[in-house]
Structure formats: structure tokens, C-alpha cells
Amino acid sequence: MSSEVPPEAAAEEALPPLIEVSGTALSSSLMIYVVGFVALSVLGGAAYYFLVSKNRKGKKEIDVDEAMAANSVGLGDISYIASKLHPQSTHMDVLWTVISTPENIAYGLKAEKAKEKLREERIKSDKEEVKANMFDFDDEGWADDDDDDMDEEAKHKAKLEKEAEEQKKRDREQLEKATGKAKILMEGIDDGVIGQKWVENTLAENGFWPPKDLGILEGAKFNYNGKKVSALEHPGLRRNMCMLMGRLNSMLLNTHPELLEAGSKRLVDQTYFKGSMEFRGRCSMLLEAVLRTALTLRNAALARTIVETVGMFKIGCTSRDKVEWFNEMMEKQYQCLPRVEIANATLERPDEMEAGDVLSLCFSLNRSYAEAFTRQKIAMFQKQGIPPQVGLQTYRECWWLLVQAERLDGEMPASDFEIITDGMLREVDKKDIKKFEKTACQERLLTAYPVIVQNCAQKSGKVKLQFSAPSVPGKYKFTVSVKSQEFLGADQEFSIEETIEEVKEGKGGEHEETKKDK
Question: Exposure winner among 75, 112, 384, 388, fewest CB in 10 A?
Fold first, then answer.
């Protein structure tokens, strides 16, 4: 779903800007890019989401396979997201919204039905196997007690036959595994196998299940088999809730002795644990859609909360307040704390700053942790037998730049912060749009950028992001929130004050005359 657009291309494509952006790479040698949001919001709304909704037009049921294959989010989910969230939404509100979108519930329910079908097939197969073997005695086996009476040649022959039978069994198992016909171990059927029930019980023992604060899901009812049921009573949604709580408490589960032992013996229910990986991918895509929605709604508070929520989900922790725990983990694993240093921030324009001009916000970004971080990454790849040059190619680090403006000597120009409802918001109910239109202009987003770091070893560079100056002259304070999607406690904020001048009369005409004179 994510795409890295060269900043120059993003600027050229952003003709009818919703949140105006353009950008410049930090440095050609740095592999750190500023990605314009307009290409992702306006064009995404007009093309990406349009194609998805167009392809699904006229379908009565949600096609989960189509959504997954297209790596997409439908407009129905966008409408649901906008209806559930508001500027004061909490991190858990965001996550409860993500796991309860219509498509995600359908995805969870389909997985549950597939698991139940597989369970029924396993039970039937096991019964048939027991019945077939009920009178299948090994006639030669009765002679086991008389081994002492066998001569050496007979013993040797029996040993070879036994080894041949065991080899046939191993070959048969390998063939079944290769052809996908191997018996799938399932919790509740096979002894010692752990899956969703084990996860729920382990979370319950530690006070995390069932969740105490259900937020938007508290008291909500969902359709299941013609009935209205609670979130925990809906099999598909309960599965999503369990996987979410498992992800947020991943440190607890992944280091649990019972899971480690079951893993070493291959006694894990793949219908759950393999499904949890697919669930993470689906939720990551939905979190990006939620962030796009907040940015298109131009709400700075919700955008900040969502970026923080993405970090929680990636790291696997239940709160953004666990900075001390995260710092200890980073110090232990990487011998450093991931912090960026911002310096030399300026707001520039070739001439005087006039209303409507394109302004350039420039600053230096220093990743002081780059050397230690990269060193430990290389050591980890080497330990895992992965060539470091290959492993480091997959590295991504995202820092969001959220820019707001506040007029210090008068009212803000509301037209500069208008919410455009075309594109991805076109099916959102008007009453849900109004929740965000009530937000004061200085609390809305002027522009937004993700800075993507692709080279783990790069230490510093310069960021240059561009946006249109407010349309009304006056003294303004531009505030930039630097938010990390990967690290806790690494966020920063800085401000710049500048005066936007009134556009001089006849400036355009004078400019044209000058060109003609030349």
C-alpha cells in the first residue's frame, strides 16, 4: 500500500492540493527521502480508492480475498473509520477501530470458518484412521517377546525390516508435507498443541484478557448468524481481538516457556500463529489507511495519535508511556537510544514572503545513533546467517513531519484549512465530517510529510519541505511535530515565527513587463 514517490514528482502531481506539499531529498548520498503526502491523499483518493470501490461496485458481500490480493482498503472501511474516530480518540480507540472494520471482521470470520472446517475434516480423518487400524495387527510383532530365542540371522533380518518400515514412514511424511497433505496439528485435537485458547488463557493469567477497556467496542453489537452479538461473542471479531492483544503483549507471549517448548517440538497450531502474521499485515495496511484518513481530515491531534499507535503496534506494547521499558530494551540490544537532533531550522523564500507564496522549511537532521544501531544490526544478521548487505536493504525508518500554523495577530484564514471531501472521503457521512470541521484552524494540519530513512548507517542530512503560505497577511507561528513510527520517546517539536506580507499590486504585471523588456 505504501509507495515512495520522488519528492519532485510528488510536487508536480499535486496540482489541486488538499494538503499542499512538495519536497526535496535530504542529500543525494543519504538515501533519506521526503515523500509528498498529496500524491498519497489526493491522487490516492481519486485513483487508488476509486479503483477499489469501482471494482467492488454492485457486490453485496465483502470479497476479502479481493481486498487482500489488491492490498487495498475499501471506501466502506474508510467511512467506518471516519464514523468511529474523532480528534480526541485514544490509541486503543484507533486499534479497536482497525480490527472492527467491516472487511477486517469478514476476514477474521472467514479464517474462523476455514479453521472449523479443517477441524471437522481432522476429526473425521482421525476416526477413519482409528477404524482402519482397529484390527490391523502386526503378526510379526507377537514374536517380540521371543527375541532371545531368535538366531542372529533372524534378528538381523528383523532389524533391517524394521529400519525399512521406519524409512518408509519418514518418506511418506515428507511426501505428505511436500504435497500439502500432511496432518495439521490443531489445538484441542492433538496433545500439547497450543493456539488461540492458550493465548487467551495466558493473557488472562496476566490480567490482559478479556480486555478491560473496549472503548468504541463497549456495548457495540455486530451481526452474526442473524443475531446481534457483542464483540467477544462474534467469532471473527473475537479472533481479531485476541490477535491484537497478543501483538501488544508479544514480549510476554514470545518469551513464555510453554510457547518456547511447543515451538521447539513443532506443537503450535498454525491456523492461529500463521494467521496472526497475516493479521499483522492486514492491520498495518489499515493503520496506514486510518492515518491517511486523519491527514485528509486535516486533524493534527488525531494524526499524532495514529502515528504513535503505529509505533505501539510495530513494537508490541500496550502503551506509549512505556518509554523507560523501551529505552532499557534499546540500550541492551543496540547500546544506543534512537533520537534525532533538529538544528538550523529556517523558513525561506527567494523574495519577501507574501500571501500564497511557496515557502521552504529547511532544517538539519542528525541521527546520532546510526553507527551503533547499524553495528548491532550487522551483528544480528551475521548471527542469523543473513548477508548484512542483503538484510540492510530491507531497512525502513519513518519520521512524520506534521506542520501546523497559528496566526499571532488576528484570525486564521479558514479557507486555507478546508477539508476536501472528494476522493477517499466521498462516501463518508456529512455528520462525521462535521466532527473535524469544528476543530480550530490552528489545530488543523497545514501540511504533512513522511521522511523515509532507507540507509541505516547514514548519520545526517538536510530536509527541505515546501508548502503554500497562508492566504491572509499577518504574523504566523509554524510548528513542526516530528513523530517516529518506530521508536518510543523520540518525538520532537519546534516552531518558527515569520511575517507573511501582503501581495504587492501590479507585481505580476511588472514581472511580465520586465520579461518583455529583456
Answer: 384
**DSSP state for residue 354 in the 8-state scheme:** B
**Grid cell listed for 159:** 532389524
Q: How far is residue 107's CA from residue 67's CA, in Å, rounded to a whole number?
A: 9
Q: Rounded CA gap, 208 and 242, in Å?
A: 10
Q: How far apart are CA 187 and CA 185, in angstroms?
A: 7
Note whether 257 and 264 are within 8 A (CB).
Answer: no
Do the Cβ atoms of 198 and 205 come closer than 8 Å? no
Q: What CA dihedral angle connects 372, 373, 379 and 384, to 10 degrees?
A: 170
Backbone angles phi, psi at 272, to 5 degrees: -100, -55
Residues 161/248, Cβ–Cβ less than 8 Å: no
Give the rounded distance of the alpha carbon of 38 from its chain centre: 20
3-class DSSP state for residue 446?
Answer: coil
The strand pairing partners of 493, in sequence order, are 481
Q: Which helix (H) or strand (E) holds 484?
A: strand 474-484
Domain positions in the chain: 7-106+274-507
Give every strand in the sheet of 22-24, ordered side by side.
22-24, 460-468, 358-367, 340-348
C-alpha grid cell, residue 143: 514374536
**8 Å CB contact between 481 and 495:** no
- Cα separation, 489 vs 187, in Å, equals 39
Helix, strand or coil for residue 454?
A: coil
CATH number corresponding to 7-106+274-507: 2.60.40.10
Identify the bridge partners of residue 364 per DSSP, sorted by sequence position: 343, 462
Alpha helices in 410-482 (DSSP H): 430-437
Rounded CA-CA distance 53/47 in Å is 10
* Mean pLDDT for back-to-back runs of 10 residues, the chain (518 residues): 32 27 33 36 34 42 49 86 96 97 95 93 86 58 52 78 73 55 85 96 97 94 96 97 97 95 94 93 94 95 97 94 93 93 89 81 94 95 93 93 96 91 90 95 94 93 91 94 95 94 65 39
Q: Which of 24, 29, 31 is nearest to 7 (CA)?
A: 24
Rounded to whole angstroms, how far apart are CA atoms 130 and 107? 35
Burial string for 168-201 (b: 16+ CB within 10 Å, else e) reads: eeeeeeeeeeeeeeeebbbbeeeeebbbbebbbe
pLDDT tens track for 86-140: 999 999 999 999 999 999 999 999 999 999 999 999 998 888 878 776 655 444 4
Q: Which residue has the cell 489545530?
A: 443
| Cα–Cα dist 45/129, whole Å | 55
Mapped onto helix, strand or coil, the DSSP state of residue 318 is: coil
372 close to 397: Cβ distance less than 8 angstroms: no
Q: How far apart are CA 336 and CA 495, in angstroms?
A: 27
What is the three-class DSSP state of 330? helix
